[in-house]
């Protein structure tokens, strides 16, 4: 049988793209001969993230979705029709055996093209509350995978594919080397602050106001402030960086995280057992709060509304937790109890099985 051809549809944000690329890596580990093509848009983060990981990116127009979309309505829109035709041409050109979608507006044309070309379709939803594209895509296939129960109908809960460096991380064994990497003393109490790939201006303001008090309490701060934000001044006990490209080492070097609650962040923190203070993004459809709630309810973290997250709140929470190693350890164990480290392998095998069925058509 000829090599299998897998098309991954994703784009827009890192939350959509990273799981797709982690799946691609797992597919290659299981079957090095598999051909992988990524379909996205020509303006999202996929234009840099996909080639950087060594995968081919093909682009179609992102589809604007009406507030109450239906598949029939979408198909009669000229822009949508053109994007679907482009995606169908790509599926035929690469002789796709299966298409796997992770959401985002650039993914929907591939979902509709898979139906047109009779290509088996797998939908993966990362968030606790599904986006519109995946809600529509899930109507087109019985192969629906979710990270959180109940986010899509007739779905199998499998977790979120993680990078191998995260999935296989032993925080304790890596701790000293990770601290050496960042220049953090071995006995320091360390707070990790990051607001996603673009940083978080509110986090940056709160950290700036809290910095003197945090360092006075002997707390070190590793702070990813975002590539588009103003660079804070480093000082002893405060390590500002625009972006952390070795999150595995950041997780190993630190004791507590302050973060948003994107699906990938929640999945990674629970997998590695790092306690966290979750500050859900105050915009969107509320999915970030829902992403964090299972971890918080299990005892693996705290949650605070963005409007309530200020210097006083942070000092009370961080100083208390970082002064109590036993409580941090208990929280870490609770978070780890929800962690899924092998979702990439399970999803890859699921996709390969679907691809083989497609190849046998």
Short description:
About 45% of the residues lie in helices and about 15% in strands. With about 350 residues, the protein is an alpha/beta fold. The mean pLDDT is about 90.
Topology, please?
Blueprint: E1 5-9, H1 14-30, E2 35-40, H2 46-52, E3 56-59, H3 71-75, H4 78-93, E4 98-101, H5 108-117, E5 121-125, H6 132-137, E6 143-146, E7 155-157, H7 164-167, H8 171-182, E8 189-194, H9 201-216, E9 219-224, E10 238-241, H10 247-253, E11 256-259, H11 263-272, E12 276-278, H12 287-298, E13 301-303, H13 311-322, H14 325-336, H15 343-359
Parallel strand pairs: 1-2, 1-4, 2-3, 4-5, 5-6, 6-7, 8-9, 8-11, 9-10, 11-12, 12-13
Q: Could you characterize what this model shows?
A:
The protein has 361 residues and is of the alpha/beta class. The protein has two domains: 5-162 and 342-359, 3-Layer(aba) Sandwich (Rossmann fold); 165-336, 3-Layer(aba) Sandwich (Rossmann fold), CATH 3.40.50.2000. It contains 15 helices and 13 strands. The protein has helices at 14-30, 46-52, 71-75, 78-93, 108-117, 132-137, 164-167, 171-182, 201-216, 247-253, 263-272, 287-298, 311-322, 325-336, 343-359; strands spanning 5-9, 35-40, 56-59, 98-101, 121-125, 143-146, 155-157, 189-194, 219-224, 238-241, 256-259, 276-278, 301-303. A seven-stranded parallel sheet has the order 3-2-1-4-5-6-7, with helices on both faces. A six-stranded parallel sheet has the order 10-9-8-11-12-13, with helices on both faces. Strand 11, helix 11 and strand 12 (276-278) form a beta-alpha-beta unit. Helix 4 (78-93) crosses helix 5 (108-117), helix 8 packs across helix 10 and helix 9 crosses helix 13. The chain is elongated and about 65 Å long. The two termini are 12 Å apart. The mean pLDDT is 92.
